[in-house]
Design goal:
about 5% helix; single chain; disordered N terminus
Length: about 200
């Protein structure tokens, strides 16, 4: 179940924050072709039951075997052949009435098959980007070309390196064996690209 929670967090990231600023009239700041350098991610999934049981699963990683190109024109982001591998360890903790009962770690390894996609974008102010149909991190769950919904984040252009950082938050409830559980998931994901 812990592995499923991590996968569902990564696959279901549909609610990203976006800053409320005036839209920039020009998208020339980011225009150009980039190669994917890597993704970094810090994730947390906390499930709390009405019976006092709680489980916390965390995973922090930087992707390896990164390939593919990302192109920004005046209004679209186009990815071609983007693929990467996650080779990390997830850590899990089980609590009862806030008393730690058990902890474990388990491998969190998979490779995203190469994907290509096109998504529109808008710059917001001088440091934020908005993807009306979603982009980039939607590929973390699998096929990569499925757009899950609007997302946004902050970007930093430092010389040839472009970093886009997005934050995802999800809060939901479910019932299992007559117990109501609240699941809070969060992730901070950064995508680092190098201009060609």
């Amino acid at each position: 179940m812990k592995r499923y929670l991590i996968y569902s967090l990564l696959a279901g990231m549909a609610i990203f924050y976006s800053c409320k600023k005036e839209n920039s009239n020009t998208n020339t700041a980011l225009q150009g072709n980039y190669k994917l350098k890597y993704f970094t991610s810090n994730t947390n999934s906390t499930i709390t039951g009405s019976d006092g049981e709680k489980s916390v699963t965390t995973s922090d990683y930087t992707t390896i075997n990164n390939l593919g190109t990302i192109a920004f024109d005046g209004s679209n982001l186009t990815t071609v052949g983007v693929t990467y591998t996650i080779n990390a360890v997830a850590k899990g903790y089980i609590y009862q009435d806030n008393l730690l009962l058990d902890s474990s770690s388990f491998p969190f390894n998979f490779t995203i098959p190469p994907f290509s996609s096109v998504a529109s974008y808008q710059l917001v102010g001088t440091d934020s980007i908005y993807f009306p149909q979603g982009a980039l991190t939607t590929g973390l769950g699998g096929s990569g070309n499925i757009q899950y919904g609007a997302s946004g984040g902050r970007y930093i252009l430092n010389g040839a390196l472009l970093t886009i950082t997005q934050t995802a938050l999800k809060d939901s409830t479910f019932i299992a064996s007559g117990v109501t559980f609240q699941m809070k998931e969060s992730a901070v994901i950064s995508i680092v690209m190098e201009k060609l």
